[in-house]
Amino acid sequence: MTDRRYMALALSLGRRGQGMCWPNPAVGCVIVKDARIVGRGFTQPGGRPHAEPVALAQAGAAARGATAYVTLEPCSHHGKTPPCAEALIAAGVARVVVAVEDSDARVSGRGLEMLRAAGIEVTLGVMAEEAARDLQGFFLKTDLGRPFLTLKLATTLDGRIATASGESQWITGPEARREVHAMRLRHDAVMVGGGTARADDPSLTVRGMGATAQPVRVVVSRRLDLPLMGNLARTAQDIPVWIAHGQDADPNLQQTWRDLGAELLPCGLEGVQLSATSVLRALGKRGLTRVFCEGGGALAASLLAADMVDELITFSAGMVLGAEGHPAIGAMGLARLAEAPKFDLISQRAVGRDIMSVWHRLEGRAAGR
Predict the structure, then answer these.
(1) What residues act catalytically?
(2) Any known ligand binding at 297?
(3) Does 196 count as an annotated binding residue?
(4) CA 116, CA 193: separation in Å to the nearest integer?
């Protein structure tokens, strides 16, 4: 029970790094000696230093003979920093408790072997399920080459996101919008489709959370036909803007967006639309582990159809717009209920006057292709 208590603290620390430490995993570490916490750490912004050296620095000499609780297997390879397994050995810890093994081929058990070879007692699997969920984006990037994807939808009771004229601000209340900014903060990138970028001229930044690093802003637009005087274009030099586009996009527009400061990601097509699989793999190749998609309907439909949505978060407002309103999800061409993407309800609560529901991919389904 004590191991679980300290690992739960390490997991809570690790979550502080979510959205800020990509391409590295958001790891937490707690060092305990004689039932007293002597060191705490989590992966720092930009991915370095890692959680273990942060906690060891805080613990100092008290780390000798202590137990270290780490949410992910300590790294064993020399990258931009020395291996964390070596740091734990040099500090003289007596025991290391690890939640989950690293699937990265450069580590994958080697960190645990290094610790055992140095005479350190190793316990693996404490709160493994919770850690695997927190680190799913890192594992998906490592194993499948794509980030974890959260799809957020803010709709009326009848599933509409705008009136027939396109008016959408605001369907949900201020409390729900603040919750969304907190969600943006926990992801590496915020993504929208080209239609949303044209209709709403969004900033896609985190606001109202104090001074904080901003997520990458990603727009999916096959033809790059986006507002050149809009918020994203005006701020691309200051806050990263990445645009996933078709390889047939106008070369002049490509150069214009590069000159504005955007990074362009050419992607493959599926029919007449950009392939959702190609887009997410391009983002994974660039190191993203967690992406927060805020629509619109066509992009949401393509992500769902490609089986790429790992988490679905809905905000339901107490209003009705009718059939002429814009639907939250575009056409998916489903003929049978059996073909529909399915999710498990994880939680539901009131946020102001709206209802927030969190759904996860139905257990047993693949985590994307």
Answers:
(1) 52
(2) yes
(3) yes
(4) 49
